[in-house]
Specification:
single chain; alpha/beta; 8-stranded parallel beta sheet; 17 helices; 28 strands; 30% helix; 23% strand; globular
Length: 576
Amino acid sequence: MSTSSNLLKIAGATVYDPAHGVNGEVRDIWIDGGQIVAAPADPAARPATTLDAAGLVAMPGGVDMHCHIVGPKVNAARRMRPEEKRSPAAALHARNSPPGAEGGAIRSGTLGSTPSTAATGYQYAGLGYTTAFDAAIAPLAARHAHLEFADTPCIDRGCFILMGNNHYLMQAIGRNEPQLVRAFIAWLLRATGGFAPKLVNPGGVERWKSGQLATATDLDTAIDGFPTTPRQIIRSVARAAAELHLPHPVHIHANHLGMPGNWNTTLETMRALEGHRAHLAHIQFHSYGGDATKAGTFCSAALPLADYFNTHENISVDVGQVLFGATTSMTGDSAVGHYLSRLHGAKWFSHDVEFEAGCGVVPIEYKPKSLIHAWQWAIGLEWLLLATDPWRIALSTDHPNGGSFLAYPEVIRLLMDRTYRADVLRTIHPRVRERSLLASLDREYSLSEICIITRAAPARLLGLSRKGHLGPGADADVTIYSPSANAAEMFQLPRYVFQAGRLVIENGELRQEVFGKTLHVAPQFDPADEAPIARWFDEHYSIRFRNYPVDESYLGEHQSVDCVQRVASATECRAT
């Protein structure tokens, strides 16, 4: 008999691994060197460690593909919400690790809607999530974001880079120079250590910054000072991302977020893609019917949008589910921040990032008896229940905009238990209760479908071949739950969580502080294309071009995810 010093066997778990068609089968999971491996061929081989998981449920580690956890906007929120930090329950106290743990002391931190870096990592791990992507980093803030990532334990991480109102890009698009557009996106992703291009209210933020109403025009109205339109920005960046073979396509926060009647803009955004792949973020906030001048007409338009989504496989979405309670909204859409501050009379932070982006931060409380908030809660659930292909829809709260990621177990229960869903529906604004589709939607998610929308699908949509599944070669990110009839109880307190094969959570306790890696891309780029970009920077920016790129030393441990020609459509990515 031989014993491997590194081999770990998770024995007898009830495994959900939809990427490999495994649906609640009792199996062993083998881990070696941070990766999932096949069972040893030698029957005499023995693991160094065996974890008895009989009666427990094992899934890949959770993947949050759209959240806001690092960068200047998050720090601004931490500073402007001292009221969230005043209670003893909002403090995380430092302590030593339990005996036998490997990671040393656990750091102190603050909680609330925007936890400090260490607390963010601990809370994700405590929820069974092992990977998270910040969805909106201004290029000039990328260095700051990576430094905060390096201080956020227990998760692998990455970020999307804001480009939808970048002056250089809008000018190149307006001049119809697709080669320059492609070169700039490739260069910018490499220079920032980013993972995908992000469009936030394309053209609209620039319009608002120049004193116009960002919500007043459609996708085909030219942006003052630039020979382009929002539709051209959407189409050009989607095309460039496809030509660069990026693992994740353009990630779009569409125009007119949060406005009554914005579903028409969302539908036009989907059509503007002209068949190119794209991910539409927090789709709930873009699925509103009604008249923008009459708040009482606010209603759901999830059905016509979901019908279009269900028949167009080039599109994926995450939900941006709203949960009732207090939180902090933060967005690269400065216009929305300004609108919300005036609507609620709340304090407001706005930041203009030179020629490339902006952000707005506003505290908010979602109330079940508010007509608007109740519709927002219902519309997110309608989307999750109307989408027929779980491989193209990911669970998100757009943390912290719709609520904390800590609310995921509550959303999972709402999806798996229609009786509970009906009970909550009865407590919200009566007009929503009467008119929402929720009362007629009997669908209940299975554990396999929950596994898809919380880890397998987000990993596939991000193009992460080593995440979201438990096959040989996958990162050994494994979450093990105690089954329960109450899905919220099951998913809010995993029994064990492994990140890269390291045990970080056991029975709800943090066993050790470990650090993951930064996931980024390095698309092909001709150095000759750098000269015009350098000239433009040195003429316009407050920072010299040579100081702009983020050195790899800021990324810490990192992995460049390959940019390869996509051979499978989103539908073909389903389990076979």
